[in-house]
Amino acid sequence: PASAQRDADGALAIGGVGVAELRTKYGTPLYVLDETEVRAHARGMHDALRGAAQAHGTDARVYYAGKAFMSAEVVRWVTEEGLCVDVCSRGELETALAGGADPARMGYHGNNKRVSELERAIEVGIGAIVVDSAIEIERIAAIAARRGVVQRVFVRVNTGVHAETHDFLATAHEDQKFGVPLDAAPVSVARIREIPSLEFGGIHCHIGSQIFGAAGFVESASRVVELYATLLAGGPVSTLNLGGGFGIAYTRVDQLTPFPELASAVVDAVARECEVRGLPLPELAFEPGRSVIGQAGVTLYEVGTTKNVSLGERGDRLYVSVDGGMSDNARPALYGAQYSARIASRTSDEVPALVRVVGSHCESGDIVVDHEYLPGDVTPGDLLAVPATGAYCYSLSSNYNQAPRPAVVAVRDGEARVIVRGETLEDVLARDLGIAPAPGTRA
Ligand code: LLP
Question: pTM of the full predicted structure?
Answer without folding.
Answer: 0.96
